[in-house]
Amino acid sequence: MVAMTTNSVVPLADAASYAAAVEEATRAAAAYYATGGSTLDDDAYDRLARGITAYEEQHPEEVLAGSPTGKVAGGAATGDVPHTVPMLSLDNVFSEEQFVTWTASVERRIGRPVAAWSVEPKLDGLAVAARYHEGRLDRLITRGDGTAGEDVSHAIGAVLGLPERLGTPVTLEVRGEILMTDEQFDAANATRTAHGAAPFANPRNGAAGTLRAKDRPYRVEMTFFAYGALALPGSGALTDTLGELPHSEVLRYVAGLGVRTAADTEVAPRTAGTVEEVLAGVEDIAGRRAALPFGIDGIVIKADPAADRRDAGSGTRAPRWAIAYKLPAVEKVTRLIGVEWNVGRTGIIAPRAVLEPVEIDGSTVGYATLHNPADITRRDLRLGDQVMVYKAGDIIPRVQAPVAHLRTGEERPIEFPRSCPRCGSEIDTSEQRWRCTQGRDCRLVASVSYAAGRDQLDIEGLGATRVVQLVDAGLVTDFADLFTLERERLLGLERMGETSTDNLLAAIETARTRPLSRVFCALGVRGTGRSMSRRIARHFATMDRIVAADAEELQQVDGIGKEKAAAVVAELAELAPLIAKLVAAGVGMTEPGVTPPPAPGTVAEEAADADGGTDGGSGLPLHAMKVVVTGAMTGPLEKLSRNETNELIERAGGTSSSSVSTRTSLLVAGEKAGSKRAKAEALGIRIVSPDEFAEMVAPFLD
Ligand SMILES: NC(=O)c1ccc[n+]([C@@H]2O[C@H](COP(=O)([O-])OP(=O)(O)OC[C@H]3O[C@@H](n4cnc5c(N)ncnc54)[C@H](O)[C@@H]3O)[C@@H](O)[C@H]2O)c1
Ligand SMILES: [Zn+2]
């Protein structure tokens, strides 16, 4: 089953909002067909148009002359070159059911079953008529209002698939769609921004803007796909042939002349004998949409035999022998709020767009790929831009381009990283895709640097550069190797004299005796930062018990839910060899002052619970207290980092928290305490100065 298109409607309550909607739709459509620069995305336009239609059905006497309903191009396009046969739009269906109803109405009208249907992609570009005289392309005309279009012959020569000369010197008009492939779109925007022009928001706008632009100092390429042909005065014998051939054979004939059709794409037109076969074709084309190198917005189904088309005839806006089976919109406009730089397994540094979440085709999109830094430059993307986002099928959403005419002037440039965002090393920018110079070692450098960091093992003198040096020399393949570094090997490294070597070894020696909470934190298990690591360490007391815990036991730790527990268990299983290595190197694996909980399932567990908790901390000064620290610390607390202060609170039996609430027991307020102090006062929470607090926890200050 092909997904039903969302055909929601903008509700219009009264004549005034109806009139405003007509005006807005007309303005949008005029911009859409002229330059591609509409302020609405297609989904928004279609909802507005459906709202207008719904209102007109309810109030037929109020229909405004300027209404877009029932007109080709919503009445917003014009032209002065008459079409020999009107160039119409298409009616839509949005579901199999509606499609089946439509086929029945066609067959009722012609009084017989339709013998064959042509099922083809609905190419998302602009309709043009290409007039060939004796094999030479001499005029290119837009659809305009359907009866007359605009002469855009200046574009001849810039459109792939539309040859200036045919293989045979025939006279005929070929009709089809001009569009930009994704590749042509990217190239067009690169050329545009290089010339200081605003980028196109999407391929369709690119094609619309390019087709009508004259006198540009540069040329950008487009592609043509034919989907029909008709005779012109002077066609001679061809007039009868084109009038009698089934549609599918007209396409084959046109392709034979050297004009491009969709026949050489993944979504080649096909004929189908039954409604079931048509629907299978619809499903097949819809399923290939995401992978196509150009945009489609539906599937067009046409009666194939010439007689059926002739007998069905046409309305003023659309033929009765064809229908567009619309697919859901895959493009929406939303705001670019940030850019993240992620480092892949091999060190590739890839930007990712952070978007104001937007619903596209049934899923919410909050991130989109930006490929590489050059891509950002080429599209002149800026933070705060309204951007066109594309998401079809299972593909990763991508940012097409900014919608430049929606800029407010508040947009800011996107900053590129100067060093690897993961490990801090230099970036190799010589290729389009940036790469951390550490390549596959990037993760290793980052994880060793993290383990040595201040809140983990706190190894002084082991910054990122030194870590890179150790990794490059092959001395370290994980952070456990730090504990078995040999003095001689270190002395052999550049810039490692006796003093720095001995200082480093001494710092590592100190790190060997860090409490479990820090060693655990150093493992870098996802979702276990310093405070979570402390909670885990205080709950289990030893590494053995942490490693032995199953997901259920882990959930007893405050702040660990079901999903996180499972993830931690899985990650710890992977880290088992590293943990064993740390144990072998004599690294501390216990949390001082904490007794391990009884083994799960034993009677002792209940006894301990009755006793008021498993950590036996009831004699501690901050027992069962939630403590918030704010403002500048003075006295004995002054030299402690926030993390060390939090550790102190926990050693003294409390839990630390960063925000004041009714559950807060104590606020330690230093100078410039501000809003947290005011809130604590309002809630009647006990407030102490840093000095008073230092006294309370004096035995735990080391
Ligand atoms: N964003 C805006 O402001 C805005 C304004 C106006 C219209 N629009 C969009 O334009 C659409 C309506 O445009 P429309 O009136 O041009 O109709 P349409 O694009 O929905 O359908 C008719 C057109 O389909 C094209 N087509 C593609 N493949 C074809 C094939 N194989 N056979 C026959 N025709 C084929 C032809 O160009 C034809 O003119 C709406 O979906 C709307 O979203 C958007
Ligand atoms: Zn790196």
Automatic annotation (TrEMBL):
Catalytic activity: NAD(+) + (deoxyribonucleotide)n-3'-hydroxyl + 5'-phospho-(deoxyribonucleotide)m = (deoxyribonucleotide)n+m + AMP + beta-nicotinamide D-nucleotide
Organism: Streptomyces halstedii
Domain BRCT, chain residue ranges per copy: 617-691
Keyword set, alphabetical order: DNA damage, DNA repair, DNA replication, Ligase, Magnesium, Manganese, Metal-binding, NAD, Zinc
The keyword ATP-binding is assigned to this record: no
InterPro entries hit by this protein: BRCT_dom (IPR001357), BRCT_dom_sf (IPR036420), DisA/LigA_HHH (IPR041663), DNA_ligase (IPR001679), DNA_ligase_AS (IPR018239), DNAligase_adenylation (IPR013839), DNAligase_N (IPR013840), Hlx-hairpin-Hlx_DNA-bd_motif (IPR003583)
Gene Ontology terms, MF aspect: DNA ligase (NAD+) activity
Cofactor(s) needed by this chain: Mg(2+); Mn(2+)
A Pfam family assignment: HHH_2
Keyword Cell inner membrane (UniProt): no
Protein name per its UniProtKB record: DNA ligase
Binding site for Zn(2+): C420, C423, C442
Annotated region described as Disordered, given as residue ranges: 593-617
Residues bound to NAD(+): D42, D43, A44, Y45, D46, S89, L90, E120, R143, E177, K302, K326
Family: Belongs to the NAD-dependent DNA ligase family. LigA subfamily.
Signal peptide: none
